[in-house]
Design goal:
Belongs to the YjdM family. This is Zinc ribbon domain-containing protein YjdM. It holds the Pfam family Zn_Ribbon_YjdM. This protein has 114 residues and is mainly beta. It has 1 helix and 11 strands. The strands form 4 sheets. Strands 1-2-3 form a 3-stranded antiparallel β-sheet. It has a 3-stranded antiparallel β-sheet with strand order 7-4-11, with no helix packed on it. A 3-stranded antiparallel β-sheet has the order 8-9-10, with no helix packed on it. The radius of gyration is 21 Å and the shape is elongated.
Amino acid sequence: MSTLPACPQCQSAYAYEDGTQLVCPECGHEWSAQGSEAVAAEAARVIRDAVGNVLQDGDTVTVIKDLKVKGSSLVVKVGTKVKNIRLADGDHDIDCKIDGVGAMGLKSEFVKKA
């Protein structure tokens, strides 16, 4: 059994599917099923840096802790600026390219927005 979202107008839990639309039997409100899933997925995905600032694709961040690069002897030093980040799903929520190191994933808890 799939769980359908509550009606955005009257918050009724009795919404049902009618083709590609969702319908509320109590108030008669109709809305798109795809739109509500996309909005819910985007709202759930909020990535914050170490001090609580919301991060977005394309931001510039600064590393706040020396980070050892796994599998090599390289270290990303404190204060390294990383430009044009991309947010990703998973344990390391930032994909980026660091000069001198290459492409890598970072955790948002070790960066702050520049």
